[in-house]
Amino acid sequence: MEIATAELEAAAKHVGQTKFGMLEEKYLSIKGEMENAERVKSEKETEMKEKQELYEELKSKEKELTAAREHKLKDIEAEIAATKKLVDKSAAAAQKVGNSAETLRIELASLEEEVVNAKKNLEAMQAASLKAIEDKSDLSNKVEELQEAYAGVKELTPCLAVRSGYMFAAGALPRIIGPSWSLYALDLACRIEHMDCFLGGRTWLEFGVSGLLFVVGIGLAIGFRRDMLPYGESGGGMGGEK
Questions:
Q1: Does residue 121 form part of some domain?
Q2: How far apart are CA 76 and CA 86, in angstroms?
Q3: 3: left (phi > 0), else alpha (psi -120 to 50), else beta?
């Protein structure tokens, strides 16, 4: 048996060294490579199939995510539009409130000014009322004084009427005699001096007599000063002491 095995090995070695042996070895090597390639191909096909299935799954999920994203974007845009409308509405309301506040502030300032003016008018009216009361009191006092004076004058009316007549007549005399006396005095002074007064006369006599009469009038006024006191002074009147 051992001899047969040894001879078989020797024969195989001999065959391997021949052309047929070399072709067989090469065939077996190629066959092994083909089997290996088939195995690799099967593995690659399995891997490609898995990857294709994964690709399809990812593509489906991508579509779902895209649809979800688009739906989410639409929701976000709707929320943004609603928020923008709310902001615009709030801004308009705030502006309206601001305008109302400004109007109220102006009205309040106007009312404050009216209140200040009303206070000033009230103070002026109070001052005018007090002044009117004071004026009324003064007028009442003056009316009483005038009534008292009227009562006194009423008692002296006959005497005053007579004196007024005398004074009117005495005041008329100078207006009547004065012009004639003035012309006559100018000429009389020239005669006294024995001069020819062709230029209008001399004035010393006219002014001298007038000055003398003035001094006499002052003397009479001093002498009768008690009778010349106004009514109501020193307990007497124009007619003297009562």
A1: no
A2: 15
A3: alpha
Q: Using CA atoms, how far apart are residues 21 and 15, in angstroms rounded to an integer?
A: 5
Beta bridge partners of 236: 241
Distance of CA 135 to the CA centre of its chain: 41
H or E stretch including 55? helix 19-192
Residue 182 lies in a domain: yes
**Does residue 208 fall inside a structural domain?**
yes
The amino acid occupying position 16 is: G
pLDDT, tens digit (0-9, with 9 covering 90-100), for 184-239: 777 777 878 777 776 667 778 778 888 888 899 899 888 887 776 655 554 444 44
CB half-sphere exposure, 5, CA atoms < 13 A: 2
Tokens 């005497």, residue located: 159
**Whole-prediction pTM:** 0.27
Strands in 14-134 per DSSP E? none
Helices (H) and strands (E) in the chain, counts: 3, 2
Structural tokens at position 186:
């100018």
**Owning domain of residue 42:** 2-83
Residue with structure tokens 């040894």? 6
8-state DSSP, 18:
S
Domain boundary among 83, 118, 139: 83
At residue 168, the 3 state secondary structure works out as: helix
3-state SS assignment for residue 197: coil
> Coil, helix or strand for 196?
coil
Does the pLDDT at position 33 exceed 60?
A: yes
Q: Is 144 inside a domain boundary?
A: no
Tell me the one-letter amino acid at 31. K
CB 193 within 8 A of CB 205: no
Number of domains the chain is built from: 2
